Amino acid sequence: MNYTSKRLDNQEAPQTTERILYFIKTKGPVSTATLAKTLDMTGEAARQQVQKLVAAGLIEGRQEAQAGAGRPRQNWVLTEAGNARFPDTHAQLTIKLIGSVRQLFGEAGLDKLITQREEESRSAYALACSAPDLPTRLQQLAAVRDEEGYMARVEADGDDWLLIEDHCPICAAARTCQGFCRSELQLFQEVVGPNASIVREQHVLTNAMRCIYRISPLPELN
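Structure for MarR family transcriptional regulator, as requested:
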C-alpha cells in the first residue's frame, strides 16, 4: 500500500523517501543507525537522507536520555507535515460535513450519524471476524482495519495481545467529534468477546504516535 506519493523538492528518488517515512511512521522514534541497518544503507547514506528529510520539514529530532552516563541519543519522528504524507480520508470535507450536521441537527443528530456508522461497521466486522478463537479473530480485525487505512497489526505481549494502528485515516473527523473513537472501542470489545477485555493504552488524539489497544484474557469463572 503506497501511502506517500509526493516528491521532495530536490527530486530525490521517491522510493527511498517512502521507505524512510513509512519506517519512521510504523517504528518510530528511530535513530539514524537503526534506519541504516534496517533499510540496508550505509551510515553516511542514512545521515544524508535524514538531513534531506529534516530540511524538507518532514521529520524532526527527539532527544532520548541514555541510561547512565553519555550524551542523549537523537531519534527521528514525523512532523505534522510528515504525517500529512499519509492520507486522512477526505479530511476537510468530513470536518465541514460534521460541522453542518452539528449545526442543523445538534449533538443528538451527530450521535445518530455515529450510531449509523457503528451499525454498518458492526455488520462488516461480525462477518470478517468470525473465527472461534481470540488470536485469529484479532488477526482478522487487524486485516480489516489495515484495509481501511489504519496500518494495523497484532503483536503478542506476554499473555496479552496488542492491536497497533500506526495511522488514523479519520483523524480530522475524530478530533472534531471524539464519539467516533468511543464507537470504535465498543466495536473492538464486541469482536474480542466477553472472555477478554480491551483498553486503549495510547491514543493519537492525546499526541501519541499511534493508537495501541491491549487485549487481556479474563480469568475463567468456576
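DSSP finds eight helices and six strands in the chain.
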